[in-house]
Amino acid sequence: MVKMGQCYYNETIGFFYNNSGKELSSHWRPKDVVVVTLGLTVSVLVLLTNLLIIAAIASNRRFHQPIYYLLGNLAAADLFAGVAYLFLMFHTGPRTARLSLEGWFLRQGLLDTSLTASVATLLAIAVERHRSVMAVQLHSRLPRGRVIMLIVGVWVAALGLGLLPAHSWHCLCALDRCSRMAPLLSRSYLAVWALSSLLVFLLMVAVYTRIFFYVRRRVQRMAEHVSCHPRYRETTLSLVKTVVIILGAFVVCWTPGQVVLLLDGLGCKSCNVLAVEKYFLLLAEANSLVNAVVYSCRDAEMRRTFRRLLCCLCLRRSTHESAHYTSSTRTGTSTRIMLSENGHPLMDSTL
């Protein structure tokens, strides 16, 4: 019999799953096999892709600039997310019942920390792009200390959200507050996590919208002094494309998961969140792969570095030809825009 105010630190995982009404399978079901197969595939791709990005940034001196430190931190967070999801895949299905409470909180904490770090870094990149454009500065002139502080802040926030459930924000002493999707966590934690991600998205929308209208005004002002502007339409369309890709990827990957988290956090009894939770979590993990494509692989210089690194691995020989590469005219996270005054180049800003 469950008593109010009593703590259940010595109970099994099955006790909390039964309390929340979440099924704890004793054998591998077809659904479990599908989720694990897809999860392992996504995890391996995330690990390989983000390892390649980190290696590219470390090996190419052109990327030794503060803004690329943020891209490197995004790759590190997504790499961590790949490791966390891989750990989950080896401790899910029938293996969940064999976990201790500490093991379950470790599994959940790894996911929460890594995904929070990834989302927070996306916001940090947006903020730095906004600052760079508004200050009419090249990305290489961003203050190194500012970027380092942003990275430290990202991981402090991520570790805070990841460690809190194991130490205080759980429901081991209040079973009536347990969520269905994560039976050891308080529903309020899920609601706060979902609302935090929604806030991050809204801030990103505000930042990139402000950048878009600012750059469009600058290009229009430039058009008033030059008779022919074949690049005006191209610049505007490219800018729209970049913003849509960045925000669209976030919405597609994160919105489904945040909706079910919020519904569970708000205690919606009629919402069948358990039917889709595993697939939506997989979609959120896939964002760590999408980030690599949106923020890094669209950079021509980055792609050249990838080819050089892969050739080195395939041919088992080192090369020192990166110094001969010409600089890219288009970055992975943005459209590079030349703004001029009286026909002379004034700045080279990126989103």
From TrEMBL:
Principal location: membrane
Q: Name one GO molecular function term.
A: lysophosphatidic acid receptor activity
Q: Where does the G-protein coupled receptors family 1 profile domain start and stop, copy by copy?
A: 49-295
CDD domains associated with the record = 7tmA_LPAR2_Edg4
PROSITE patterns documented for this protein: G_PROTEIN_RECEP_F1_1 (PS00237), G_PROTEIN_RECEP_F1_2 (PS50262)
Please report the record's description of how this protein sits within the membrane: Multi-pass membrane protein
- The secretion signal range is none
Keywords from the named record: Cell membrane, G-protein coupled receptor, Glycoprotein, Membrane, Receptor, Transducer, Transmembrane, Transmembrane helix
Q: Where in the cell is it found?
A: Cell membrane
InterPro entries attached to this UniProt entry: GPCR_Rhodpsn, GPCR_Rhodpsn_7TM, LPA_rcpt, LPA_rcpt_EDG4
**Under the cellular component aspect of Gene Ontology, which terms does the record hold?**
plasma membrane
| PANTHER family in alphabetical order | G-PROTEIN COUPLED RECEPTOR (PTHR22750)
Similarity remark: Belongs to the G-protein coupled receptor 1 family.
Subunit notes for this chain? Interacts with RALA and GRK2. Interacts with GNAQ and GNA13. Interacts with CD14; the interaction is enhanced by exposure to bacterial lipopolysaccharide (LPS).
What is the protein's name according to its record? Lysophosphatidic acid receptor 1
Originating species: Vicugna pacos (Alpaca)
Name the gene behind this protein: LPAR2
